[in-house]
Each structure stands twice: as structure tokens, then as C-alpha cells.
Design goal:
This protein is mostly helical. The protein contains eleven helices and two strands, in the order H-H-H-H-H-E-E-H-H-H-H-H-H.
């Protein structure tokens, strides 16, 4: 009976992502000998989870632990890397609240963790550390797996192609070794946050444009000196375009 429940738990891709994020946070904490970081990730996850639990109880009179809120909190804890627990708590709380406040046709528009982190930058003036994002050998294989499971490989394809084209061309013009650009990429952002299915398009062309558009925005902002987090801004701008991108239809050719 226990074996069946474990199998059913891991059959859900959200639960798989929760386990991955937990293990990743533990790994980073042990590697850097920074257990306050693990506590921060735990606090962020708890506040996000309880905030959504209360909202769902008020709405439906049922106690429901949302796996999405756990994921949101863990992402915030991993990316924020703040030693001030109250900031992590406020960021997680605002992520869930804004998720329910900002909607289009009963669906939330912005990536909850992304919006919460961006608000925290504006309020607290923090610079996000994106801790662990350089561990490409961990994030790429798992990220491709999760992108496949949630059917967002096209988002990765669009983002990767435009990023390599734009930043690679820039490096060549500036006489910077092409391979250096792989050290600039935020792999946690690309392979965890960018592919979030609820706030990205559901059709083929929309996914390609979403990934490509995010890469273009990040490239432009990086070269005009925007002082806020370019990755988050690019993601939030493209999140806003998702309702329009979802209306795209495949091109058809009439044969006469």
C-alpha cells in the first residue's frame, strides 16, 4: 500500500520538481556549509504554502496543500538567498497573494515566484544571487526532463537559439571567445522558471515566440544598462503576452 502511494506521488511532475528543488537546496547548503540558506528556503516554502492554503480554505472551505505553492516558495528560497527571514516570508506571501489578484480569464498571468522576486527587488533593493545557477551539469539534464514532461521543449529551443545568436554575435564583434557566453547563462532561470507551464503559451508557435522573445528582451536590457534583474523582467514581460500568444494559429496554405 505504501509502495503504491509512493509511486503515485512520484508520478506527478510537480511532486518530482518539489523533490528535485529540495535535494538541490540541501546540496547547495552542504556544499557551501551554509545551513542558514537551507532554513531560508524552508521558511519561504512554508509561508508560500500556508498563504495559499488559507486562500483555498476561504474560497472552498477545504484544507488543500498546493504543490504549486511549495514550488514557488522553494524557488524563492533558492534564488533569493537572503539571510533575513522576514524578507523571504514577505516575498513568498506577496507571490501567492498577487497570483490570485492579477488574473486574466480566471488564470494568473505572471510567474508567481518571478513576480514575487521582482517586487522584493523594488521594495528591499536587493540583488538576487541566483545561487546554484552555475551548476549546469545538474540543471540542464533535469531541466530538459521537466520541460519534456510539461511540454515546453519549444520554449527552451526558442530561448537557446536566440540567446546563442544574439550573445554569440555580440561576443564575436567584441572579440570575446564564443564559449565564454556559456558562463553568463542563468541555468536555474532557464531550466526551472522559464518553462513554468501555467504562465507560458500552450501552442507550438506561442512557445517558440515566448522563448525567443524572452531572450531578445534580456539581450536588449543587458546592453542598455537596465539596473533591475534582466531575466525576471524578460520573463514577466513575456508572461504578459501569453494570452495573445495562445491565440496564434498554425499557418495554413491553400492549394488551388
Amino acid at each position: 500500500m505504501a509502495g503504491i502511494s509512493v509511486r503515485s506521488f512520484f508520478r506527478n511532475v510537480k511532486n518530482q520538481l518539489i523533490v528535485f528543488l529540495l535535494v538541490f537546496a540541501i546540496y547547495l547548503s552542504i556544499r557551501d556549509r551554509d545551513f542558514s540558506y537551507l532554513i531560508g528556503s524552508f521558511v519561504a516554502a512554508v509561508f508560500a504554502t500556508y498563504t495559499e492554503l488559507i486562500i483555498l480554505f476561504i474560497r472552498g472551505k477545504k484544507l488543500i496543500v498546493s504543490s504549486s505553492s511549495v514550488i514557488t516558495g522553494l524557488i524563492i528560497g533558492i534564488v533569493f538567498s537572503s539571510t533575513m527571514l522576514w524578507q523571504l516570508a514577505i516575498t513568498s506571501f506577496s507571490s501567492i497573494i498577487l497570483k490570485y489578484m492579477i488574473k486574466f480569464k480566471s488564470k494568473h498571468i505572471f510567474n508567481p515566484a518571478g513576480l514575487g522576486l521582482f517586487i522584493s527587488i523594488l521594495i528591499f533593493g536587493n540583488v538576487l544571487e541566483w545561487k546554484g545557477t552555475s551548476f549546469w551539469y545538474i540543471l540542464i539534464p533535469f531541466g530538459i526532463y521537466f520541460a519534456y514532461k510539461v511540454r515546453r521543449l519549444e520554449v527552451l529551443a526558442g530561448y537557446s537559439f536566440l540567446s546563442l545568436l544574439l550573445f554569440g554575435s555580440f561576443n564575436l564583434v567584441k572579440d570575446i571567445p564564443f564559449l565564454n557566453l556559456f558562463g553568463y547563462f542563468s541555468y536555474f532561470y532557464i531550466f526551472v522558471m522559464l518553462i513554468e507551464p501555467k504562465t507560458s503559451p500552450s501552442n507550438f508557435y506561442g512557445k517558440i515566440i515566448f522563448g525567443s522573445g524572452t531572450a531578445i528582451i534580456i539581450f536588449v536590457m543587458s546592453n542598455i544598462g537596465i539596473r533591475y534583474d534582466n531575466e525576471l523582467l524578460g520573463l514577466l514581460v513575456m508572461n504578459f503576452s501569453v494570452p495573445m500568444l495562445n491565440k496564434l494559429k498554425p499557418l495554413t496554405m491553400e492549394v488551388k
